[in-house]
Amino acid sequence: MTLDFSILGTVWPALLRGTTVTISLTSIVLLCATPGGIAVALLRSAPSPTVRTIVRAASWIFRGVPPLLLLFLAFFGLPVVGLTLPPMPSAVIAMTAYMSFYFGEVFHSGLQSVAHGQWQACKALGLSPARTLFRIILPQTIPAALPPYISHATEILKGTALAAAVAVPELTNAAKQVFVVTYRPFEILLAAGAIYAVLDAGLLILQLYGERWAARRRAAR
Amino acid sequence: MSYHDLFIQYYPSLLQGLWTTLLLSAVTLLIATPLALAIALIRETGSRWVAIPLAILVNAIRLLPALLVLFFVFYATPQLGYRLQPLTAAMIGLSIMGAAYMSEDFRGCIAAIDSGQYKAAKALGLSHLHTLRRIILPQAFPLAIPPYMTRAIIMVKATSLASMVAVADLTAAASRATSITYEPFLFLVFAGLGYLLISGFLALLQSWAEAKIARAYRLAPR
Which InterPro entries match (chain B) (predicted)? Predict the structure, then answer.
């Protein structure tokens, strides 16, 4: 058997289209799951014990079930509750749902790293809870949460491959579509892998800068 | 048909799927664990000429989506002249992925042991293997329990990807029953409960192992 990478000359438009879908899916999920994660983290330290218990249970369930199963659940389940969506939005909903809980854990431990006394001090100074959160707590949380945040972002990128299962035309799906007609899975999957590696590398460089910035912030404190 | 009838009808295939998932989980853990330990030991204490290529390989694998690796093992190997059964391909792909990530967990635990101990063992005339076996690994072992169990749970969840290369695991059985009956919740929720049961069992195993090791090593309770 000989490898023939010239096949990539004919299939690259399909891979490129897949790459753009992968990038947009990753960005949309990142944009939706970040506020979702902040909400989960705040609810996990809500005053009501009932809310805390419910959020912890939901977090355990969403992080304990395979993401693929949640994608199927959104794909088959949403139309039944009256929400008939194309594959891409249903994949976004499923991925946002579980990534919010993963981010929730990251932000929760970030929030924990800020001494609880600061909330009380701000209250004593007459700051509103929202102002306390945005001006006092979050600026200290971000340096602690940034490195795990970006490593979870690479998990989103790699996780988008699962959307192939619900017919989203992202990179892995695009690769499969072209190798089943060209019979060249080796070369095409290798090329797809290289594209994922490049995208991941972009995020890892961001992480490197983020970690340096976080270290400076901690040193300045 | 009522939920009950549907469930009775598809119960055998779901149970079969659950067994396949358990088998796949057990086999991938059994293959990945020694492989990961070997990779971690070589990268932490072995010759640089083996450690550097291994580091490149491990990090390259960690950059890729697990599904892509599975596709590669299943669809690309026939091009090289090996035709693998779906279950075999899934076992190989998932073990490779698991071992790459697990070796990083183990590496952290080995690195946590003070490097002065290698020098002390050398000064006492212990061989390299003897040092690893009697000095380093017994101390790294209790540190490795929590990340190992977390990794094991992740690997159990990852076995659901095998459904994408035609393995009839729990996810495949549930999604097949779902697409035949158009009943969206019953089977998928059942499958979800199956996975939660497995990871719940592993979490219990973790707290049992941690308590046992804390006693055996006389560690202060945390």
Answer: AA_ABC_transptr_permease_3TM (IPR010065), ArtM/GltK/GlnP/TcyL/YhdX-like (IPR043429), MetI-like (IPR000515), MetI-like_sf (IPR035906)
- Please state the rounded mean pLDDT for residues B21-49: 94
- ipTM score: 0.86
Look at residue A142 and tell me if it is in a domain. yes
* DSSP three-state, residue B191: helix
- Summarize pLDDT for A75-100 with one digit per residue, the tens: 988 888 888 888 999 999 999 999 99
Q: What is the tens place of the pLDDT at every residue in B131-190? A: 999 999 988 988 898 899 999 999 999 999 999 999 999 999 999 999 898 888 889 999
- Residue B71 has its nearest CB partner, among A66, A176, A197, at A176
Q: Comparing C-alpha atoms, which of A41, A33, A10 is closest to residue A160?
A: A33
Task: Say if A101 falls within a structural domain.
Answer: yes
Q: Does A202 reside within a domain?
A: yes
Angstrom distances, CA of residue A42 to CA of A39, A51, A63, A104, B161: 5, 11, 18, 8, 32
pTM (predicted TM-score): 0.88
Q: Residue A124 is part of which domain span?
A: 7-220
Domains and CATH numbers, chain B: 3-216 (1.10.3720.10)
Residue A28 in domain: yes
Would an 8 Å CB–CB cutoff place B63 in contact with chain A?
yes
Provide, as residue numbers in chain B, all residues whose Cβ is less than 8 Å from the Cβ of A179: 75
What's chain B's average pLDDT? 91
Q: In this complex, do A66 and B164 lie within 8 Å of one another by their Cβ atoms? A: no
CATH code of the domain covering residue A138: 1.10.3720.10
Which of B166, B9, B206 has the alpha carbon at shortest distance from B84?
A: B166
